Automatic annotation (TrEMBL), chain A:
The keyword Zinc does not apply. PROSITE patterns: ABC_TM1 (PS50928). It comes from the Bacteria. GO terms for biological process: transmembrane transport. The lineage of its organism: Bacteria, Bacillati, Bacillota, Clostridia, Lachnospirales. Belongs to the binding-protein-dependent transport system permease family. The chain crosses the membrane at residues 9-32, 98-117, 129-154, 182-201, 236-262, 282-308. Residues 94-301 form the ABC transmembrane type-1 domain. This is ABC transporter permease. One of its GO terms (cellular component) is plasma membrane. It is a multi-pass membrane protein. It comes from Parablautia intestinalis. It is found in: Cell membrane. Keywords: Cell membrane, Membrane, Transmembrane, Transmembrane helix, Transport. The keyword Oxidoreductase does not apply.
């Protein structure tokens, strides 16, 4: 097991380095962040001095190695806009994003797992059709449109829920306050995830239900409840683990748009403002972080496989 | 006791009816027809079992026709100011007018054109890239396979929308840039799929026979291997189409996609970020949103039915 994990980490390293190179390449094609600085009141000499101070006068590959060298020493650079260290910025925005992502993931699983299993057991019945249609709707509705609809209904028409931020300005905050602000973003993220997950779990459970060992279990006469809850569910854990692994990158991306719509003060909001301000060090930091998270999620998924299903051999 | 027997009797009656129906459905002629039908006919018959997909196909055909015929059926020029600012729907303007007095219905028709164009072109590009890379990786293996698959891993490890957003910001948002960006981001799934299929096909006797017979490489790859993996590619491409239309909408909504005055379904929703539009002028943002859902959902249903219909292991 330890050998397998080591091997996977070694494979992940070149992938990570490749990602940073692609990143850096794309952003160097974009042009200098100093373009934003230029104006009638800023002299050419001042811009050049700034470029030298930021190391932007050197060729692109030198800049890349300087950045990589700093990174290995734990320094992710400084924001071009706010002069804050990037690692500091990421740390302060990570909490709200993780909270939002974690809660959405849990809620979507609570929706998708029972619905998927129900619809597999009741295949081709009315309930099944309803669940499948809902799941198609969930994966077809754009997240931002659902957000707008929810804001329209719950904030504008009913006035029940706040539509932006994590706490109301001027109040202390606290658990209830955050919870209230979280309801709509979580619904949006969980719906879109549950949409694809329901179908995935449904087809996985359908396959399990046709296995010989389930026929044997039924033939033993232990009853439908035990057959499904003891024999089928245990085996359905494998597809559920897969689903969680698949959702991590989707979550990271979906959070960018949803955080923008709901002004949720997380990584997504920070990334969007960094993108529009061409704040390269910040963008690089976020891309690197997300790539690490995705690769780590893949690894954890594979390890969980082995724990859930003893017949899978990690080679 | 009596009740119980009654219930059982009722069940029996139900079952009998059911059986009769099955028998009617499977009369001798029908069986003969099935035995004689061609591959395409089989797929079409199986596809028609999926009622929602048949309805979706009709809806999609209608919407595509409306989009293609937009210059003919649109009541006004989409970019011309024809009415009052933000006018509510009335007899003259069925869906009202937007903030600067353009007809919403006409803009909607043209927007659908743009959104479909983005989706279809992005899907074509990513399918071609995915198929070519997948064929190379699967057929030649070794070094080529290693490099291509690591590259695929890299693209897949990016949170997809983040990559698209960064690229859109870097390459100046615009119609063709969006198409190219979406096309260059969506291919890894197809590449993996094709590679897997090619690995399986390469071990089959008919491909080995071709190699032994000294057939040219191009013939083996494109005339022997590719046709045998078209079905899964087609199914996957429908989901890429749905996804890239959703992505275009999201990007344009954020102002990083198709730029006004060209209307796309996403950038028509962009106005709803302002509170007045959101609260007071629902005709400006609800119709494009519903249209996106309708388009994407029909494509997804069709893809689902195609998956079942093209599956060689499925019965019926």
């Amino acid at each position: 097991m330890a050998k397998y994990i080591m091997k996977r980490i070694l494979i992940a390293i070149p992938v990570l380095i490749g990602i940073t190179i692609i990143d850096y390449g794309i952003m160097c094609m974009a042009g200098s962040p100093l373009e934003m600085l230029k104006g009638p009141r800023v002299s050419q000499a001042a811009v050049e001095a700034k470029a030298i101070a930021l190391g932007l006068d050197k060729p692109f590959y030198v800049q890349y190695f300087v950045w990589l060298g700093q990174l290995l020493r734990g320094n992710m650079g400084y924001s071009v806009k706010s002069y804050q260290p990037v690692s500091e910025m990421i740390r302060s925005h990570l909490g709200p994003t993780l909270l939002l992502m974690g809660v959405s993931l849990v809620v979507s699983l609570f929706m998708a797992v029972p619905a998927g299993i129900y619809s597999a057991i009741h295949q081709y019945e009315k309930g099944d059709y309803a669940v499948v249609t809902f799941s198609f709707l969930g994966s077809s509705i754009p997240g931002f449109f659902l957000s707008l609809l929810l804001i329209y209904i719950f904030t504008v028409k009913l006035g029940w829920l706040p539509s932006s931020g994590m706490t109301t300005l001027g109040t202390e905050g606290g658990f209830g306050e955050v919870l209230k602000h979280m309801i709509m973003p979580v619904i949006v993220l969980a719906t879109s995830m549950a949409g694809s997950n329901i179908r995935y779990i449904r087809s996985a459970v359908l396959e399990i239900l046709q296995q010989d060992y389930l026929r044997t279990a039924r033939a033993k006469g232990i009853g439908r409840f035990l057959v499904i809850n003891k024999h089928a569910l245990r085996n359905a854990l494998v597809p559920i683990v897969t689903v969680i692994g698949m959702e991590i990158p989707v979550l990271f991306g979906g959070a960018v748009i949803i955080e923008q719509v709901f002004s949720w003060p997380g990584l997504g909001l920070m990334t969007m403002s960094a993108i529009s301000g061409r704040d390269y060090p910040v963008i690089m930091g976020v891309c690197l972080l997300s790539a690490v998270v995705v690769l780590a999620a893949n690894l954890v998924t594979d390890i969980l496989y082995a724990l859930v299903d003893p017949t899978i051999q990690l080679e | 006791m009596g009740r119980k027997t009654e219930r059982i009797e009722k069940k029996m009656v139900k079952k009998k009816k059911f059986k009769k129906e099955i028998l009617v459905g499977w009369d001798e002629k029908a069986v003969k027809d099935i035995a004689n039908e061609s591959y395409v006919q089989t797929i079409f018959r199986r596809f028609c079992h999926h009622h929602l997909a048949v309805i979706s196909l009709a809806v999609l055909a209608l919407l595509v026709a409306a989009a293609l015929l937009a210059p003919v059926i649109a009541p006004y020029d989409p970019d011309e100011i024809v009415g009052t600012f933000s006018g509510a729907p009335c007899r003259e303007f069925w869906l009202g007018t937007d903030q600067i007095g353009r007809d919403v219905l006409s803009r909607l028709l043209y927007a659908m054109r743009i959104s479909l164009l983005v989706g279809v072109m992005a899907t074509l590009i990513s399918t071609v890239i995915g198929v070519v890379l997948g064929l190379i990786a699967g057929y030649f293996g070794k070094g080529a396979d290693m490099i291509i698959m690591r590259f695929t891993d890299m693209v897949m490890s990016f949170p997809y929308i983040l990559l698209v957003l960064v690229a859109a910001a870097v390459f100046k948002p615009g119609l063709w840039n969006i198409i190219l960006i979406l096309g260059f981001v969506d291919w890894p799934g197809i590449a993996r799929l094709v590679r897997g299929n090619v690995l399986n096909l390469r071990e089959t006797n008919f491909i080995k026979g071709n190699i032994v017979a000294g057939m040219p490489l191009g013939h083996i790859l494109f005339s022997e291997i590719l046709p045998n993996t078209v079905a899964p590619i087609l199914v996957y491409a429908t989901s890429v189409l749905a996804l890239s239309m959703l992505d275009e909408a999201a990007l344009s909504f954020l102002g990083q996609g198709v730029q006004p005055p060209t209307a796309s379904l996403g950038n028509m929703l962009n106005g709803a970020q302002s509170l007045t539009v959101l609260t007071k002028q629902p005709w400006l943002w609800i119709p494009p949103g519903l249209l996106i859902i309708l388009l994407v959902m029909s494509i997804n249903f069709i893809g689902d039915a195609l998956r079942d219909a093209l599956d060689p292991n499925s019965r019926g």
